[in-house]
Design brief:
Blueprint: H1 3-10, H2 14-23, H3 31-39, H4 51-64, E1 67-71, E2 81-85, H5 87-97, H6 111-117, H7 124-152, H8 159-199, H9 206-209
Antiparallel strand pairs: 1-2
Helix pairs in contact: 2-4, 3-4, 7-8
């Protein structure tokens, strides 16, 4: 491996390793097939790259010698380029997957909770509706996870992806529980707020009713 290739290896983003990881399972796959697999597996516990990202990473992996491709023959009505992992790619992926220092902590970016955090700017009914929509969406995702688990359970080589999907099932169940608890918290807060406003002097400033303008952090 040249020094240029070594530098590129060190700079590979997680998307590249994910694409290479999908190629590490038996069989050849097109970029479109990789996208379908990412949508039915990776997205439930990590994320699903766009098709343009997948093809960009495939080109990068080929340049590094980690993947190889070949066009289909005349027996297919529409020519397709299928990709496989190389020995060098498998060795690099094994090293990356075994490097626990690179895993890092999980990152949570919860769009709904950001809006709940700004709930003083929204109507209570709107916040409750947002949580309700989130719960409905999560139930749909849970059903999709279970469908993916059933498919993975039919293939012996997918035993470890099945474990990741099982974790995702538990995570979605926990998200439903948290959402229901959030609805209860919003109801409790609304009841407490109504009582507080009922006892406030007529014409009292909003800041006084909300406990002042200081940030709710020490220091």
């Amino acid at each position: 491996m040249t020094s240029s290739q070594t530098s590129k290896k060190q700079d590979l983003p997680a998307t590249a390793w994910a694409v290479l990881g999908m190629l590490s399972f038996p069989g050849e796959r097109t970029g479109y097939e990789l996208k379908k697999w990412a949508d039915s597996s990776l997205r439930f516990f990590y994320w699903s790259p766009a098709i343009s990202q997948i093809y960009a990473e495939l080109r990068r992996l080929e340049e590094l010698g980690y993947a190889a491709s070949a066009r289909s023959g005349p027996e297919e009505a529409r020519a397709k380029r299928r990709y496989t992992i190389t020995d060098a790619g498998r060795a690099a992926l094994t090293g990356w997957a075994s490097d626990t220092a690179e895993a890092g902590p999980p990152v949570l970016k919860h769009g709904l909770l950001l809006r709940i955090w700004l709930g003083h700017l929204a109507e209570p009914e709107l916040l409750r509706a947002m949580v309700g929509e989130h719960l409905e969406r999560t139930r749909g995702e849970l059903a999709a996870v279970r469908e993916a688990m059933a498919r993975a359970g039919e293939v012996a080589e997918w035993a470890f992806p099945a474990l990741a999907l099982r974790w995702s099932e538990r995570q979605h169940l926990a998200e439903l529980e948290l959402g229901e608890a959030l609805l209860a918290d919003l109801a409790e807060l609304a009841a407490a707020g109504t009582k507080a406003l009922a006892g406030a002097p007529e014409g009292a400033p909003a800041a006084d009713r909300q406990g002042g303008g200081d940030a709710p952090t020490p220091g």
